Predict the structure.
Amino acid sequence: MIRKYGLLYLLLAAPCLLFAQQDLRLWYRQPAAVWTEALPVGNGRMGAMVYGGTAKELIQLNESSLWSGGPVEPNVNPDAPQYLPKLRAALFSGDYETANILAKKMQGLYSESYLPMGDLQIDQDLKGNAVSDFYRDLNIAEALATTRFTAGGVQYTRTVFTSAADQVLIVKLTASKARQLNIHIGATSQLHYNNESIGNNTFLLKGKAPAHADPNYINENKEPIIYTDSTNCKGMRFAVYIKATSTDGRISTDSTGIQVKDATEIVVYLTAATSFNGFDKCPDREGKDELAIAGNDLKKASAKSYNSLLKAHLADFQSYFNRVSLQLNNSKAVSSKLPTDERLDAYTRGGADAGLEALYFQYGRYLLISSSRTPNVPANLQGIWNKELRAPWSANYTTNINVQMNYWPAEAGNLSELTAPLFGLIQNLSVTGTHTAQEFYHANGWVTHHNADIWAISNPVGNIGSGDPTWANWSMGANWLTRHLWEHYLYTGDTGFLRKTAYPLMKGAALFTLDWLVPDSSGHLVTAPSTSPENNYYYDGKKSTGITIASTMDMGIIRDLFDHIVQASQILGLDAAFRDTILRTRDRLYPFTIGSKGQLQEWYKDFEETEPHHRHVSHLYALYPANLISAIQTPELAAAARKTLELRGDDGTGWSLAWKVNFWARLLDGNHAYLLYRNLMRLTKENNPQYSHGGGAYPNLFDAHPPFQIDGNFAGAAGLMEMLVQSQEGELFLLPALPDAWKSGEVKGLIARGNYEINLNWAGGKLKKAELLAKLGGDCVVRTLNPVQLAGGSVVSKPTKIGYLLSFKAEKGKQYIIEAK
C-alpha cells in the first residue's frame, strides 16, 4: 500500500515512487547479530544503527561533531624547519635511509578521533512467547527502518527515522492488539556519562568526551584515552534527551530510564547535541550549550504528531533522494525477492542481479544525504556511523584519497548542496594550514597532510617521530582538496563561489606549492620529500622505502591545481601576473614518464614496488579524478595507465576496488569497470573465514575495507555514473563505458559539468534517447558511441575516431532531446 501523506509527499515521491516500492529496500529475515548487519539511518548530523532485535532492541547512536580533543596546538615541533635542507640533500644523493630518519623529525601530532555517542536500548516484555514472522528492512527511498515480528498472537512493529527537518530521532512502536506493549527504554555510553530522570516522561544522558584519544593503530602509550585536561579547553560535552509518549499506556521514569506499560502505541523522541563551537573554540569553556540545544529540539519535536514529523521528514529527505532514478535492464529480478544478505551471497557466486547493482548505487546517495549536512563537519571515514571508542584510523579525514572519495558522487549525483560541509572544513584547514606551512617549512600559502579532523589539524602526523613517512609526511592534501572547489564551479557555473571561495583557497594552496618545489639536477621542478601514498619501492637490491622525489602523484596533483588556477584567473579576469608565474612554473614540472613495463611510472625512477598489487594507485590521480590523462586526448598516456591497472590487478580493499571502477570507466572500458563494480559487492562477513576474502560489501551493504570504510560506497556510486555519463573533456559523453551486462536501462537526473541535467534511455547497448536540460546554456558538444540527432533532425552527429559528435548552441533553461539516428 502507498501511504497517504498529502499532496507534497506525492509530488516529491512521484519521479521514482514505483521503483522505490519494488527495489530500494534492504531487508532481512533475522535481527542483526553484529554491527555490519545493523541498518543505518541519519539526518546528516545524528546517526543511528538499528539492530532490529525482538525482546532487546539496540539502536547505536552517533553525532557528527562528537570528537575527542580540542583546537590545534600551535608550534608543536619548532625544530622541524631545520631538517628540511638536510632531508632534501639526502634525497638528492640517494641516501633514502637518512631521508626517512629526517622526515620523522619533521612530524607533528596525530589527529583526534570520532567517537560513539551512546546506545539506546529498548527491552520489550514478550511474556516468554516465541517469535515468528520476523522481518526488518531499510527503505532507502523513504529513509525508514522497520522491524516487524509476531509473538503470542500479536504483531509488533517498530519504525525508526532521523529527521533533518525536526532534528529528532523517532522510534514508533505499535501492537496489533490493544495494550500489549510493555517496554523499558534506557541509554548508556562508552564515554564518561551520567543519567537522570527530569520529569515529563523524559530521560537525560549527559557526558564528556576525552581530551585526547590515540589512533587505534598506536599502542605506545599506557593510557590511549585521556579525559583530564589542565587547560580546561579539550574534551567536549554532549547531551541526549529521550522522551516517550503513548495514547493509552502508563509511563514512568527513574534514573535507569523510561518504563511504559500496557500501551498500544508508543512514540519515542530522541534529540542530541554537543558543545562543539567551531574548530578554533575550546569545546568546554567556550562551548555551545548542548543541553539547551537538544532540549529545545525535543520541546519542538514532541509538540508535533508522529504523522506530522513523518511527513516533514519524507518531504525533506526525498527532495534530495528523488532527484535521480535508475533502472538497469528494466527487469523485476527474481533475486529481489531474496533478503539482502542472501541476495549478496547469490550475486557473489556469480548470479546476475541488475536490481542489486542499481540499489547499491542509490544506497551510496542515501548514505551521503544521511551523513553530510552538518556545517564544517563533512562525512568522515565512516560517514557518521561508528561504534568503536577507538575507531579504525580514528574515523578521521584521510586526505590522500578517502575524504575526497566521499564526495565524488555529490555533484554528478544531483546532491551538490551536500558538498558544503567539505568546503567548510577546507576553509578551516586553510587557516591551520597557513600556520603549518610557516611553522614546519617557513613557506607561504597553506598546506595539509595525510590526516585531518574536526579541529582541522593540518600538520604531518606521527607524534613527532613515530609515523611512517610513507603516509605521515605526504603534503599534497590542500592541492587535492581544492579540486572539489573547482569541480563545484564546473558543475554549477557559480562564478560568485569561484571568486569568493574557490579561487582564494586554490591560490593559497598554489602559493605553498611554489615555495615547496625545488629544481633537480636536470632543471625540472620537483617535490622533495615526496611519497606515493602508501606504497614502497625497492632500491639498492632489496632495501625498501616510501620516501622519494617527485612522485607521479605529486606531479599530477600540482599540474591539476596549476591548470585550475590558470583557468579560474582567466574566467574571473584577475591575477594576470600570478597566472604567468603559474604557467612558467608548470612548464618546468617533472614530466610523466612511461616505465620499462609500459606502465605509467610511479616514482622518480623506474623502481620496483615492494607490493605490486598495492591498494593505492596514486600515480593514476591524473586519470581520475583529474583528466590530465585521457583515452581521447592523450592515448599514449592512457595506454600506460591501462598497463598500470593490469599490473596492479583487479583485487583490493573495498575503496580501492571502487577507485578502479572509475579508472576503467575513464579508459572507456565498461566491461572491466563492471567487473570491478561486481567485486565491490562481494559478500563480506565479520569473523567468518568463508566470507573474509578482502574488500567487498557487508550484509548491510557497508563497504568493507575491511573493516568498514564508507568511501567505497561513495566511490562505487560515482563509478556507476562515470560509466553512464562523462563530461571532463568539455563535452557530454553519453554512455561512454556502458558494460555489456546492462543491455537496456534508464537513468534520470544526473548532472554533468556545465550544469546539464541528463536523462538517458538505452536498449540493445545503444543510446535511444537523451534529454538535456541546459541550466546555464552555451556551446554544447555531445559524444555518443552510436549516431544521433537532435529531435527533428535539424542537427546530426558526425563520426570521429571515438564515436560521434553532435554540436549545437544551447539556450539557458531549455531542454533538448537527442535521439538515435
Q: What stands out?
A: The two ends are 42 Å apart (CA to CA).
